[in-house]
Amino acid sequence: MSKIIGKKLAYGAGALSVVAAVFILSMGLTFGGTTRTHKPVKLGSATPPIAQLSPAIEQLSDAFMNVAKAVTPAVVQIKVTSTPKAVNVPGGQNNNMFKFFFGPDFPFHNFNMPQGSPQPEVALGSGIIVSPDGYIMTNNHVVQGADPNGIKVTLLDKRQFHAKLIGRDPTTDIAVIKIDGTSLPYVSLGNSDSARVGQWVEAIGNPFGLDYTVTQGIVSALGRSISIIRNKYGIEDFIQTDAVINPGNSGGPLVNLHGQVIGINTAIATNTGSYEGYGFAIPINLAKSVAEDLIEHGRVIRPYIGVQISAVDQTMAKAIGMDNPSGVLVQSVESNSPAEEAGIKSGDVILKFDGVGIKDMSELQEQVATKQPGEKVPVEIFRNGKRLTLTVTLRARNGSEFAEASTGTAAASNLASLGLSVQNADKETLKKYDEKNGVLVTGVTAGSEAQDRGLQQGDLITKVDNKAINSVDDLNNIVKAHKPGDALLFRVTTQSKTNEFLALAIPSK
Fold first, then answer.
1. Which of 169, 173, 348, 360 is catalytic?
2. Angle at CA of residue 353, ends 347 and 354, nearest 5°
3. pTM, two decimal places
4. Is 126 considered catalytic here?
């Protein structure tokens, strides 16, 4: 510190000497008969080595600058505060981890680690304003776990807002929050189906807390599935880019040279936690469809067609009479599903969905997810050496029969702490699931423990803590017998008649 102060003082004294000298010279005084003159120092050449760029390069450079200027005002920094659950230190303050590892003489009291005192955590991410009234699209993993009033948004013009969580969808990693403001800039959404490998793109966001950073690159691949969404209905069909994306970019836009958002930056492929060459963005067509549902309904109403599919490789294509591998193979068709009603059969190959060519399983998932229940969609298939086009009428994934809780003997119950609504299952429903007992899930709250752990509307809960569930009262009694923080093991049967075990923790109130 003394060195710094000394330098400051020396700089200040030197400055005063210069001022005095300038003053004296301005009066025309001389010292020893010699007049001191000032010669300005010239550094560097004023002539650029390359005087003129080609018009194409100038135009490309201008395009990058114009995109950054147009889009950046609608990109926001998101600061999320969350408080984790209390961590009990074994033995309390006087027998903590430092004492365990370093011995009884370690000055652990200096670390101020009271037992059961969780500390707030702060994380930074990005988002894009998608409407003039303040709806913001970002990643689910950016806002997941946020405290009430724990989402703070900062705009490029330095305005700050507390945002409200509208809804989030773990299956696509999309979330929507909202701020109340005036004269809000907002982005233009492009068509991610038009994205092409090799096209120029820019990524805009707040990596490492560095506000409004712009990087450029190309779309380096399409339809990537990298297995990062831990959800049984997870949808991955990422746009891959070499535009630099780092922690903090999550939720920010991937933009084409028209200034349109074609993706939501979400993940990176890395061994170090930082950029190593590849980033991944959720296609904006999928993100837009999810956001619209979250804004309108508070949850995602996802359609389904009811097929089990697999990839078509060269050997499979040859075996079924195709010239080249294309599309996805239908392994099985669910009974009473939209696919069965449309005439799709096991062994068919789905080549196009609503006119879009299907290259792999993730692409079909994405295309279905962008539609709404009730839509009639043309599906082109390959069967016995011929191409056919069938019309599939999409339904909600869990069937229209689960859209509302029934009344009368099927008494509804809202297990609010878990975010779960259920009703008693009648004999016909149990027969449909090939089960002898259970209660039917009629609703799952967006962002709840039940949704996070993978429970879906239309699942049949047959056991909890290894106890058979015959009625809503059975389930209520088991939940009431446990305290916040306890974990319950659920056995559920899905609509496709698969059995799964899911663990749910009872949240703290």
1. 173
2. 145
3. 0.59
4. no
